[in-house]
């Protein structure tokens, strides 16, 4: 009797051996993918940083894009020929250094000013400029009757640079010349400052100052424009109100830096009340024809023309 013999089978790998092989391959693939992902992400970060640095460097070379030059123009009193000279001067300076201009027609703000003197218009104009440029840091209000005379100077290096401002700050001096009992704080540093302003021989000068956007700026402009102050009928309207605010509100005084007049506010030779060393000299950043619009014996356009021609001549030799 014969019995069937089952055929021989080759060796069969244990299930665990095959599973281990698949797991190893999968781990190897995941490791490769992870390594490549990390390498690509690192490369992306490096390229982004390089791009950002080059963009930042280019912006620094142009100036501070976050600076806005604010000019209030009264079209009811002055013709286009005169105003266009002022606008052209501002536009050239801003374009050269990467700044922005904000030109305001004073008549557009009459409803905010009400029955107060129209010189109050600078406050709602500044608020409007800040609302229009919420990402900008500095706002330089410069009176319309003024010209940039040295276009090569940037406001960054001339005033806003931390070390430059530190050197310019006038400490422990009367807020209102010549002998106000309230003086600038002696302990302040440039990082504390939100308002940079000058005085002439008699007053704080509202015709040329720099304000940094932020919580203080909003508080400051709201306080300055308070209806109660506008109803006081101060002899010099917004100027005397400003002096009252900074002398009796320590919050304002603690954010203010007085700087020498000629830095941003040099007066023309025909302007009254220039402070000590406050009259324009060749090489100053700006010249301001202070009082040319209130003195019937003076003419703003006639005073401005020779300096405008001098400025235009400088451009040809650059």
UniProtKB/TrEMBL annotation:
Keywords: Glycosyltransferase, Membrane, Transferase, Transmembrane, Transmembrane helix
Residue stretches spanning the membrane: 33-52
Annotated region (Disordered), positions in chain: 1-20
Pfam families for this protein: Glyco_transf_34
Highest taxon listed in the record's lineage: Eukaryota
Gene Ontology terms, MF aspect: transferase activity
Family to which the UniProt record says this protein belongs: Belongs to the glycosyltransferase 34 family.
Entry protein name: Galactosyl transferase GMA12/MNN10 family-domain-containing protein
Record organism: Aspergillus lucknowensis
């Amino acid at each position: 009797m014969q019995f069937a013999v089952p055929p021989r089978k080759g060796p069969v790998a244990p299930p665990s051996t095959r599973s281990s092989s698949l797991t190893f391959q999968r781990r190897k693939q995941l490791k490769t993918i992870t390594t490549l992902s990390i390498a690509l992400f690192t490369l992306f970060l490096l390229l982004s940083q390089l791009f950002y640095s080059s963009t930042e460097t280019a912006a620094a070379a142009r100036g501070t894009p976050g600076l806005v030059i604010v000019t209030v123009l009264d079209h009811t009193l002055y013709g286009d020929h005169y105003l266009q000279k002022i606008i052209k001067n501002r536009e050239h300076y801003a374009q050269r250094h990467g700044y922005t201009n904000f030109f305001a027609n004073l008549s557009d703000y009459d409803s905010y000013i009400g029955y107060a003197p129209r010189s109050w218009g600078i406050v709602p104009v500044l608020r409007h400029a800040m609302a229009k440029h919420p990402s900008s840091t500095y706002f330089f209000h410069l009176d319309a009757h003024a010209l940039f005379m040295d276009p090569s100077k940037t406001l960054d290096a001339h005033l806003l640079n931390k070390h430059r401002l530190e050197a310019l700050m006038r400490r422990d001096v009367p807020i209102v010349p010549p002998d106000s009992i309230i003086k600038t704080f002696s302990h302040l540093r440039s990082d504390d400052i939100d308002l940079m302003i000058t005085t002439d021989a008699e007053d704080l000068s509202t015709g040329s100052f720099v304000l940094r956007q932020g919580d203080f700026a909003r508080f400051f402009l709201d306080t300055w424009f308070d209806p109660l102050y506008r109803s006081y009928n101060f002899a010099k309207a917004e100027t005397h109100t400003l002096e009252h605010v900074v002398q009796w509100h320590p919050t304002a005084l603690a954010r203010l830096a007085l700087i020498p007049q000629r830095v941003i506010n040099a007066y023309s030779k025909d302007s009254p009340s220039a402070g000590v060393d406050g009259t324009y000299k060749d090489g100053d950043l700006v010249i301001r024809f202070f009082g040319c619009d209130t003195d019937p014996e003076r003419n703003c356009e006639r005073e401005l023309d020779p300096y405008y021609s001098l400025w235009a001549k400088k451009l040809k030799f650059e």
